[in-house]
């Protein structure tokens, strides 16, 4: 096997206020955006001012440690939520059965027409091909004014979403005016990340899981599945 037949992947861990709150693997790069996206998804921050600082430290064995300082109120609320989800075993269903308003934010922005979605996905797949000729990566991008912005390509589909959303969050962009386009399946975690960011809608060339649909319906977040094909379906939009 040659280097051309592989894609880079490294471990990461995330500390908020000196407490370990997450870990995983992702493609190298855009570490601050990854941290911001994960903190937003887990409720540690909601507004840009809630995130006081982020630093990135290399780990001795490879990978990175992401160190964030967040506002005390958000930290305590997120820790309480995490303890509840672990103690009660509800996990992501917390946002459906326990607190269905937690990810329900104001959203705006019209859904893209089918032909526009096809062009957006074509551009996103081209970005993936440019980033990795060998394949093996996923793409995520925010959409504003009918064009892709903040396109990220990663070995992890969840990390691609968190990096795209986190980068826009760090820049202070109004996410409620932006859609999210994916090359990958919409999982429950992806739906939650987008919902808590206030993203207007999600479009994927693939399907959504049952958990993603449940979270999106609770959050009033429209999903467009199989967005580039004749089986395109819109879930959760008014009048759909």
Strands, total number: 10
Report the helical percentage: 25-40%
Overall geometry comes to globular
User: What is the top-level CATH class of the largest domain?
Assistant: Alpha Beta
Please give the radius of gyration in angstroms: 17 Å
Beta-strand content estimate: 15-25%
Largest sheet, if any? Answer: 6 strands, mixed
User: What do we call the CATH topology of the largest domain?
Assistant: Cytidine Deaminase, domain 2
- Our count of helices gives 7
Task: Return the domain count.
Answer: 2
Structural class category? alpha/beta
Taking strands numbered 1, 2, ... along the chain, how are they ordered across the largest sheet? 6-5-7-8-9-10
The CATH homologous superfamily of the largest domain is termed Cytidine Deaminase, domain 2
Based on the structure given, which CATH architecture of the largest domain is correct?
Answer: 3-Layer(aba) Sandwich
One letter per element, helices H and strands E, the order comes to EEHEEHHHEEHEHEHEE
């Amino acid at each position: 096997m040659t280097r051309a037949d592989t894609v880079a992947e490294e471990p990461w861990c995330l500390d908020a206020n000196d407490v370990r709150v997450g870990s995983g693997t992702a493609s190298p790069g855009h570490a601050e955006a990854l941290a911001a996206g994960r903190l937003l998804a887990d409720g540690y921050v909601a507004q840009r001012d809630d995130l006081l600082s982020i630093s990135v430290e290399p780990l001795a064995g490879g990978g990175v440690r992401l160190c964030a300082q967040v506002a005390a109120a958000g930290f305590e609320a997120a820790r309480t939520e995490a303890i509840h989800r672990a103690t009660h075993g509800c996990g992501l269903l917390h946002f459906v059965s326990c607190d269905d308003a937690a990810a329900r934010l104001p959203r705006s922005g019209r859904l893209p027409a089918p032909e526009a979605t096809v062009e957006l996905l074509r551009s996103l797949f081209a970005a993936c091909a440019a980033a990795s000729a060998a394949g093996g990566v996923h793409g995520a991008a925010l959409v504003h004014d009918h064009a892709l912005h903040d396109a990220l390509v990663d070995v992890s589909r969840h990390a691609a979403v968190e990096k795209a959303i986190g980068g826009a969050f760090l820049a202070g962009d109004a996410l409620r005016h932006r859609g999210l386009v994916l090359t990958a399946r919409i999982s429950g975690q992806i739906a939650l990340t987008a919902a808590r960011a206030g993203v207007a809608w999600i479009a994927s060339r693939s399907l959504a899981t049952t958990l993603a649909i449940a979270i999106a319906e609770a959050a009033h977040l429209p999903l467009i599945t199989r967005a580039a094909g004749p089986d395109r379906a819109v879930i959760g939009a008014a009048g759909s």
